[in-house]
Design brief:
Number of domains: 1
Order of helices and strands: HEHHEHEHHEH
CATH class: Alpha Beta
Structural class: mainly alpha
Radius of gyration: 16 Å
Number of strands: 4
CATH architecture: 3-Layer(aba) Sandwich
Strand order of the largest sheet: 1-2
CATH topology: Rossmann fold
Distance between the termini: 27 Å
Strand content: 5-15%
Helix content: 40-55%
């Protein structure tokens, strides 16, 4: 939350051919009354199914997602292996105070609950407790969105 996932993924999406941009934060709002606890498994299945369909059609995937735990990532690793697809993980990071400031500065999205300070703290705590040690870490405090995009493009193209 506040690391630049949406900004970076939007920029990458505009520059990568035949690439589907997916993320749980977008898909969960397909449900008019999404409930975090009750609907997470359903939304996870829908997203994984969408990923599989895009891969079957020869598309690239760009997944904008904050995976809290490695076990949430494993189905996507398995899917990439099934399709013999290249897989790149990037963890966008910044100091906690910067993340909080960015998240609090966001405008509220219609039909979505406002992001409260408590929610930001809860999400950051989960992220810190469950960090996994793979992928490339990129400090978004020190780099502009364009610089981050260039680093990633160097890896994937």
């Amino acid at each position: 939350m506040g690391s630049g996932k949406t900004t970076i993924s939007s920029l990458l999406h505009s520059r990568l051919p035949r690439t589907a941009l997916l993320g749980m934060d977008k898909i969960k709002w397909f449900l008019s009354d999404f409930q975090r606890v009750d609907d997470y498994d359903l939304v996870s299945k829908v997203m994984l199914g969408m990923c599989k369909t895009f891969l079957e059609q020869g598309c690239n995937l760009l997944i904008e997602q904050a995976f809290w735990k490695k076990e949430y990532v494993q189905p996507y690793i398995d899917l990439a292996n099934e399709f013999k697809a290249d897989l790149h993980f990037y963890q966008l990071e910044a100091p906690v105070e910067i993340l909080k400031k960015r998240a609090q500065g966001r405008p509220n999205t219609p039909k979505k609950p406002p992001v409260t300070a408590e929610r930001i703290d809860e999400n950051l705590k989960k992220w810190q407790e469950n960090r996994y040690e793979f992928g490339r870490n990129i400090d978004t405090e020190k780099l502009s969105p364009e610089e981050v995009v260039q680093l990633i493009l160097q890896d994937v193209i």
